Amino acid sequence: MQTPLTPNQVKDQFEQLGNTFTDWAEQHGYTANEVYRVLNGQAKAKYGKAHEIAVKLGLKLSPEQVANRRGEIGERRDEAHERRAA
Fold it and tell me: What is the Cα–Cα distance from 75 to 41, expressed in whole angstroms?
């Protein structure tokens, strides 16, 4: 199960790889300011462009990952219920 990264983890990864957020922003069609606002928590990233940035950086799960996670949780809950019933 994949978990979202913290902003510090994302920053560390970029630093270790020698990448800049400005370059990443340009490569993905965003402004550096938009990316920094997400990283520094100034943008809530609940929807829209900020949410897209957060997902692409690994700060948030994609809708597909959320759906998969819900499915895994439901399966585990069903298995636990079956064990209790047996």
Answer: 34
